[in-house]
Specification:
Layout (H helix, E strand, L loop, with lengths): L10 H13 L6 H14 L3 E5 L2 H11 L7 E5 L5 H8 L3 E5 L10 H7 L4 E7 L8 H5 L5 E4 L7 E2 L2 E2 L6 E5 L12 E5 L2 H10 L18 H12 L1 H22 L10 E2 L5 E4 L10 H10 L12 H4 L6 H9 E4 L7 H19 L1
Parallel strand pairs: 2-3, 2-4, 4-5, 5-8
Antiparallel strand pairs: 1-9, 6-7, 6-10, 8-9, 11-12
Length: 356
């Protein structure tokens, strides 16, 4: 079985962790500082604050931007629950926004319709590794948190995503573009935001008491992150090569492929295809996924369940359509050429059965 996702770990990562263990200092320390500065330099911003997860990065970013109980925070509904959790942590209200049907990123037109006078922030994921239209969103004038959990290394008009918003969050979960096992980071050009997050991520040895958190990253994690960052460009290059192989063959036989935009440099964290065919025969997406698995390729919905479906809400048609039609096939650096050929062959077989 070819797994849907898999971390890319090497001896270099093991050696980096061993050096930290041998140093005797394994909690938040110099390795964390180095990881923060190296990622900030790579993205092109002033600095970073490493934390325990992408969720904690969003949570602290909302606090640093002054979002409070009763405020509104806009976010796309076609995301995992981490964004909703962070908004709920601060007592704010989520404004759920539909997606662009071509890019699957947040819809600018729907965002404009739903903004309120109480909207204090917009969370903008660059979904599946494809940059959102971030400049248009910034023009609204509301603070923007870029969600780069799936897009580290992607670029928009020649600038790395994560360098546009008031702050940007990153996730380094096991199956993300680069990993530290668990972990996250906030990057920003604002010293005020970074200082606030660094204060809030740890609670001890403080001159005053306010509610703070245990959101630190360890040097063990940071060591892996530094090692992974050195190879990030090669990770992205391999993802793009695989995506080209998929797109070449799939376009030849009529399978929908991810759109390409001149201003955006996609890194293909996910490669998604649609299960539509001239005659869909009433087949549910779950049935399609079972066909792939029966042939040795694990595929998934790219988003397990949109937020509005958790909340029992309606009126987000493009997200519903994507949820019912999109299939994420394996794409990660450790796939061999043989794996890629097998995935293409199984996808061809699945598609032929749908259109015959």
């Amino acid at each position: 079985m070819i797994p849907h996702s898999k971390p890319t770990l090497t001896k270099e990562d093991s050696s980096a962790v061993s050096r930290v263990i041998n140093s005797g200092y394994i909690s938040q320390g110099e390795a964390v500082k180095s990881f923060e500065s190296e990622l900030a330099e790579y993205i092109g911003v002033k600095g970073g604050a490493a934390v325990s997860s992408g969720t904690s990065a969003i949570h602290l970013s909302l606090i640093a931007l002054g979002v409070k109980e009763g405020d509104d925070v806009a976010m796309p509904t076609y995301v995992c629950p981490a964004l909703l959790n962070a908004i709920n942590y601060v007592g704010a209200n989520p404004l759920l926004i539909d997606i662009n049907p071509d890019s699957y990123n947040i819809s600018m037109s729907d965002l404009k319709k739903k903004l309120t006078k109480k909207t204090r922030a917009v969370i903008v994921p660059h979904i599946f590794g494809l940059p959102a239209d971030i400049k248009d969103i910034l023009s609204i004038g509301i603070p923007v948190i870029e969600d780069c959990a799936q897009s580290v290394g992607a670029a928009y008009n020649g600038k790395k995503v994560g360098s546009f918003g008031h702050c940007a969050i990153f996730s380094f979960y096991a199956t993300k573009v680069m990993t530290t096992g668990e972990g996250g980071m906030v990057l920003s050009n604002s010293d005020k935001i970074l200082e606030k997050i660094r204060d809030l991520r740890e609670y001890d040895h403080k001159p005053n008491y306010i509610v703070r958190y245990n959101y630190k990253m360890t040097d063990l994690q940071a060591a892996i992150g530094i090692s992974q960052l050195k190879r990030l460009d090669s990770f992205i290059s391999r993802r793009r090569n695989i995506a080209r192989a998929y797109s070449k063959r799939f376009s030849e036989i009529g399978i929908s492929i991810p759109k390409v935009y001149s201003e955006s440099e996609h890194i293909y964290f996910r490669y998604v295809i649609r299960n539509r065919a001239p005659e869909n025969k009433g087949q549910k997406l779950e049935d399609d996924l079972k066909i792939f698995e029966a042939n040795g390729v694990k595929c998934m919905r790219p988003i397990f369940k949109p937020i509005h479906r958790y909340l029992g809400l309606k009126g987000l048609p493009e997200t519903d359509r994507a949820w019912n039609e999109l299939i994420s096939i394996p794409i990660y650096p450790s796939l061999t050429d043989g794996d890629v050929k097998k995935i293409v062959k199984v996808t061809e077989k699945w598609w032929e059965a749908k259109v015959e």
